[in-house]
């Protein structure tokens, strides 16, 4: 959940808040879970929804987020620091939200396309298209970064599609 929240919010502090909110919702929710997969799917869905709520909030629109070079990132646990510092992770973080979400669920969480589609409420073909576009954009960004030796390649325009 924390990795998903970090992927979606791009801020360790917001990811902490989202994870805490999700666990509080779990404590107060009376949903009877069939098995561990049902619980995991519920946690992922609530995490995604909480990240969307955070992005839409008036507070988030009015307050600048912390810079990733902030000293606060030095206090993160070693695995999270490695994840944040990885160039592929950086390229994934630059993807638009709808592409970053399917990449995270498919590659980091290991969900098949059908399950990703069910979790985000889209058609499986939409998920496949988003994965294709994300891989294409990541390839272009990483090649451009390797060619120019820069850490911040220009973002290529990709149409934002909705489910």
Q: How is this fold's topology laid out?
A:
Blueprint: H1 2-9, H2 12-28, H3 36-56, H4 58-62, H5 78-85, H6 87-93, H7 97-108, H8 113-120, H9 124-148
Q: Low-confidence stretches at least 5 residues in length (pLDDT < 50)?
A: 66-73
Tell me the structural class. Answer: mainly alpha
What's the shape? globular
The biggest sheet, with number of strands, parallel, antiparallel or mixed sense and barrel status, is: none
State the assembly state of the protein chains.
single chain
- Helix tally equals 9
Structure in words:
- By secondary structure, the protein is an all-alpha fold.
- The chain contains nine helices and no strands.
- The two termini are 23 Å apart.
Briefly characterize the structure.
By secondary structure, the protein is mainly α. 68% of the residues lie in helices and 0% in strands. Helix 2 (12-28) crosses helix 3 (36-56).
Which descriptors would you attach to this protein?
mainly alpha, 163 residues, single chain
């Amino acid at each position: 959940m924390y990795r998903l929240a970090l992927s979606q919010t791009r801020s360790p502090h917001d990811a902490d808040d989202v994870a805490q909110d999700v666990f509080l919702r779990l404590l107060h929710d009376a949903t009877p879970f069939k098995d561990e997969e049902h619980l995991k799917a519920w946690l992922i869905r609530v995490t995604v929804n909480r990240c969307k709520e955070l992005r839409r909030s008036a507070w988030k629109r009015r307050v600048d987020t912390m810079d990733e070079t902030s000293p606060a990132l030095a206090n993160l646990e070693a695995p999270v620091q490695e994840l944040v510092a990885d160039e592929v992770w950086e390229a994934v973080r630059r993807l638009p939200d709808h592409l970053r979400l399917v990449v995270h669920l498919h590659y980091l969480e290991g969900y098949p396309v059908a399950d990703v589609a069910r979790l985000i409420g889209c058609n499986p073909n939409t998920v496949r298209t988003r994965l294709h576009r994300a891989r294409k954009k990541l390839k272009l960004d990483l090649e451009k970064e390797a060619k120019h030796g820069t850490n911040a390649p220009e973002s290529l325009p990709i149409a934002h599609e909705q489910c």
